[in-house]
Amino acid sequence: MPPESLLLVLTVFVVVAALALLLEVLLLLGVYRSTRQLRERVELFVPRAEELIRTAQQTVEETRREVSVVIGKANQSLDLVRTQLTRVDEVLSDATTRAKIQMERAELILDDTMTRVQETVAVLQSGILRPLREVSGVVAGFRAAFGRLLQGGRPTVAEVTQDDEMFI
Question: Dihedral of CA 121/127/129/130: which sign?
Answer without folding.
Answer: positive
